[in-house]
Amino acid sequence: MANSRHLVECIASVTGRPLPTVVGQMRSLREAEPSLVTTGGRGIVAPRMTSLDAASLLCAVFGSETVQDSASVLLALKSLPASPQIRTRKPKPYEDPRTPGPLFTLGLEPSHSVVDGVAAALEIFDREEEFSRQIAPPMRPGKETGFYARFSVQYPQHFASLTVGVHGRFSEIWVYGRRQKLKSWQLRECNEDALREIAACLRTA
Q: In whole angstroms, what is the distance from residue 60 CA to residue 66 CA?
């Protein structure tokens, strides 16, 4: 299972951030008081990283510009209020009306933070193969099928959004904070491929 080294290498790979920067950000989260990620031994006795650890590091990487800001940025992101929205498409005449609803939910409440949301999304992608077997009937040829996701963080004014769903079927959307109109802002985001790779790292590294 993934230790902190495996997770850092994976997050650096999927985000395109320099590995030394992500190493420093993980160290910053680990050395915070209290620690913001799982801590313990090093080397062969290093603790297994969890989906919450992965979500915390991803949020810190997306939301901070410097290693020194990582812990404070993560705390700021975790304090953003959460708002949900679920969209379900009505089945077409050629589709089975008995299976129009969601195959899954993220299991979140407004009291959960953006870190909880991303962790829940990673756990969904860890079970993607199981859920995929339940996608029936198949979509018409030429239509996108399967799982999709998008996670984004806006900075320096913090705002985040998370969407997970199945093409043409449903989506669950969570918004964290309130987007403000600023003259200068930046956005970092990833899609289902990144979340899928992180989930696989946690499972197999």
A: 10
pLDDT band for position 177 (cuts 50, 70, 90): very high
Phi, psi of 18 (to 5 degrees): -60, 140
Q: Per-domain residue ranges for the chain? A: 4-204
**Alpha carbon distance 194, 199 (integer Å):** 9
Secondary structure (3-state) at 178: coil
Q: What is the mean pLDDT of the chain?
A: 86
52-70 exposure pattern, b = at least 16 Cβ within 10 A, e = fewer: bbbbbbbbbbbbbeebebb
First-last CA distance in the chain: 5
Q: Which burial class, exposed, middle or buried, applies to 190 when counting CB atoms under 10 A from its CB (0-12, 13-18, 19+)?
A: buried
Query: What is the token pair recorded at 13?
Result: 């790979």
- pTM given for the model: 0.88
CA-to-CA distance for 15 and 18, rounded, in angstroms? 9
